[in-house]
Amino acid sequence: MTVPSLMQNHQRKTYVTQLHKFYNELSQALIQYQTDKNALNLKEAGLTSQAELNSFFKTYFNVVNDCGDTQTPCLASSYKTISGRTIGTPFNEPIYMTLASGASFSAHYSGGTSVIFYLYLDTNGQKGPNIAGRDIFAVYIYNNGLIDDNGPAAPLTKEQRDNVFNDNCIAGETTWFGCFGKILNDNWEMTY
Q1: CA-based nearest residue to 120, from 174, 74, 161, 166
Q2: I need a surface site. Which of 1, 75, 99, 129 has the fewest CB within 10 A?
Q3: Could you tell me the pTM of the whole model?
Q4: Where do the domains of the chain lie?
């Protein structure tokens, strides 16, 4: 192997490790939130508004920078897809935060019957490469407390995740989610 390919493999493993760490922290926080409220799902626990979502993150995470509704300095000012298309910026989300781990995210309460909120997680904050599917991922949180990619209900099947990946992460003209589900399918490996 050449040095550039070794470096690229190392970077990909680093991004996935950081993604996996946040996934575990978020999963534990969602379980704790439901336990603290003695609830069976997130809506029953009180996660029913953007204000409650903001409070959830401030209570269960070590937030070192609350950027409010301003994308920078929590996230980079622009991002690209794997194919090089610029992602519409700013994201125009109601909340942007940076955690002590260095990860940054925007979160949006959607209030759907299945997806309660989604977030755009940049595993290394403003540092590059700022590419969807490399260091920034769209992650969806469902009312049952599960974390998955965009779909009708969680957990998604392997086939659903593959379809979302192929239609959006790789080939999407206006979307870029689906990369997270591919990593879940591939047992926390970035194989694309």
Answers
A1: 74
A2: 1
A3: 0.93
A4: 3-185
